[in-house]
Structure formats: C-alpha cells, structure tokens
Amino acid sequence: GDSVTQMEGPVTLSEEAFLTINCTYTATGYPSLFWYVQYPGEGLQLLLKATKADDKGSNKGFEATYRKETTSFHLEKGSVQVSDSAVYFCALSDIQGGSEKLVFGKGMKLTVNP
Amino acid sequence: DSGVTQTPKHLITATGQRVTLRCSPRSGDLSVYWYQQSLDQGLQFLIQYYNGEERAKGNILERFSAQQFPDLHSELNLSSLELGDSALYFCASSAGRAGGLQETQYFGPGTRLLVL
C-alpha cells in the first residue's frame, strides 16, 4: 500500500537556523501531499499541501515542492523561530474505492532554542 | 482552534473495560475521520463516516466500532481494552462536499486514553 517515509529526529536547532525535513512517498496513483504540524498539547494542523507534480505549497515561511520524479515532498524554512517547535508530519492522501484516507509518516520532533 | 471538539480530553481505565470517545465536527462538515496515534504505530487512520454512513475503513480492530449520528457528531467505541490500546485518538472533519475527497481535514485536540 501507499506509504510515507520521513526523517524522525528529534532535531534541535538554534533560532534563525535553516530547516529541512525530508519526506519521500510510495504511491500507486497521484496522491495529494501534505505537511501537518502538531504543537505541544494540541491536535494536528494543516501547514501546507500540494495536489499535483511541481506544485509548491507554502505557509508561515515554510515551503515544500511536490517532486514526482524523486517522489519527495521535503519541507524547508529559511529561518526557524522558537515558536516553530513542534512535531511535523508528512502525509499523502490515498484514494481507493471512492473514499480517501490520509497516510502519515512517523513525525519529526523539532525543538528550536533561542 | 480547528472547530472540531473531542471529549473527554483524558481517559484512564482498566483492561477489559469499554469506553466511548466523542467528536463534534466543524459546523457544516459532513465527513468525520478517526485516527489513532501511538508511539510504536505512529498516526494511523481508523475509519471515516460521511453523512451518517461508513465510508472507509483503515486499521480498525474488531473490538472498536464507530458511528455518526443525525446531528453529525461521531462516537468511537473501544471495548475489551488492552494495554496496547493506550494512545491518543484524534477525530478530524472535512466539508464532505466531494464525499471527503481532496478536502482538507481539520483535526480535534484528541483524547488521550490510558489503559492500566
């Protein structure tokens, strides 16, 4: 079945450092790709998404580009802040039999120190 | 705040017991999804309901069941609980205009279940 593989961390960075979180996927069709973020004690929030190849999703300074040739959707941010400390999940949408479910990677915990 | 509410926030129970988790979707959303987040399995899709009907099933155990009521709230019932069922259970909702396809899912804060 479809699957997502992402860096698991945990990762600790200093404020203003560059962030990359790698994500690759395996899918039989043409899934939509997502990054969700989970702040401490909260549920998941959609950070950004891309629905087709070469689409770039962006939000709050984060970016990810849907790369079909490398089956990747790496998340980047040029300068992280303490408030970016959270767990980041890469996910794809798996549509089968007219219904859809999200398939998640294992998540990566990011801590940003001042 | 996503607009999705879940109760209770925390639940502690014993093995063999039965619990019910409740989810209220965002106003107007027709699709409800249940996910389980555990340390060893990560975040896994359990089941989806669309406008009261079961739409998709994931890795849901036979001891677990769910339903969506006419007012669109949903309940996840977990029975004959085992230690391994301890996890964070999330509910998500989407508008459902396309039956849930290609729609953003909005997640609730989760219910943390601890089975002792």
Fold and architecture overview:
The complex is a heterodimer of chains A (114) and B (116). Chain A is mainly β and 114 residues long. Chain A contains no helices and twelve strands. In chain A, strands 2, 5, 6, 10, 11 and 12 form a six-stranded mixed beta sheet that branches. Chain B is mainly beta and 116 residues long. Chain B is 0% helix and 52% strand. Chain B contains no helices and eleven strands. In chain B, strands 2, 4, 5, 6, 9, 10 and 11 form a seven-stranded mixed beta sheet that branches. Chain B has a four-stranded antiparallel beta sheet with strand order 1-3-8-7, with no helix packed on it. Chain B starts with a strand and ends with a strand. Chains A and B meet through β6, β10 and β11 of A and β5 and β10 of B.
Provide a brief overview of the structure:
With 114 residues, chain A is mainly beta. Chain A has strands at residues 3-6, 11-14, 19-21, 23-26, 33-38, 44-50, 56-59, 62-65, 75-77, 86-96, 99-104, 108-113.
Characteristic terms for this protein:
heterodimer; A: 114 residues; four-stranded antiparallel beta sheet; 0% helix; B: 116 residues; mainly beta; seven-stranded mixed beta sheet; 11 strands
How many strands, which pairing sense, and closed or not: the largest β-sheet of chain A? 6 strands, mixed
Q: Could you report the average pLDDT of chain A, rounded to the nearest whole number?
A: 92
Q: What is the CA-based Rg of chain A, rounded?
A: 14 Å
Averaging pLDDT over every residue of chain B, what do you get? 92
Sheet/helix structural class of chain B? mainly beta
Largest sheet of chain B: 7 strands, mixed
Query: How far is the first residue's CA from the last residue's CA of chain A?
Result: 41 Å
Structural class of chain A: mainly beta
Radius of gyration of chain B: 13 Å
- Beta-strand segment tally of chain A: 12
Show unreliable segments of chain A.
Answer: none
Helical proportion of chain A, percent range: under 10%
- Proportion of residues in extended strands of chain B: over 45%
> How large is the share of residues in beta strands of chain A?
over 45%
* Helix/strand order of chain A: EEEEEEEEEEEE
Shape of chain B: globular
Shape assignment of chain A: globular
